Structure formats: C-alpha cells, structure tokens
C-alpha cells in the first residue's frame, strides 16, 4: 500500500496536470528522495513519472477532442502543452492517430 503522502501527490498531479510539476517537486511533496520517489512511482503506476504525466494529459485531451469543437491548439493548452505541434506529436505517438483523425473517428 502506497504511503499517504504518495496518494496526496497523485491527487495533486491529477488536479494540476495542466501546470508544470516536475518530479523533484513531487518528491518533495511526498517527503521522499527523488530516486526513491521515482522507484516507488514506477512500481505503483507502471510508468515513469514523465510518461505518467503525458498519459494523464493525453487521456484528458481525448475527452476534450471527442466532446467539443475547440481547435487542437486550444486543447493542447488546456491539457498543459504550450506548443501545439509538440502536443500533436506526443498525441500521435501515444494514440496512433493525429488529434484531428482522433476527433473524426
């Protein structure tokens, strides 16, 4: 069972995924060393911290793309990416479709 501080950090991540919160900050929130936090994070979630943040953001982006007509650049900003081209590249790698194709399909 993960420590309570880790659960709070996960809640913080899901509530603030739009903002840049790096691994060092999350380790401090948990009162853990960065290396121990990284190890525990991977063990609990199955993802590295960075990959998990991208996954959370992509899951939110999928919802936004399917539920609205907002431009893709706006979706990118809404889920925490300042560069829509970078967002599109990550989205395509994660989902296998471009954001535009995902919205249509």
UniProtKB/TrEMBL annotation:
Keyword Transcription tagged: yes
Keywords (A to Z) from UniProt: DNA-binding, Transcription, Transcription regulation
Source species taxonomy: Bacteria, Bacillati, Bacillota, Bacilli, Bacillales
SMART domains in the cross-refs: HTH_ARAC
Top-rank taxon: Bacteria
InterPro entries reported for this sequence: Homeodomain-like_sf, HTH_AraC, HTH_AraC-typ_CS, Tscrpt_reg_AraC-type_HTH
Protein name: Helix-turn-helix domain-containing protein
Native source species: Paenibacillus xanthanilyticus
Sequence ranges assigned to domain HTH araC/xylS-type in this UniProt record: 7-105
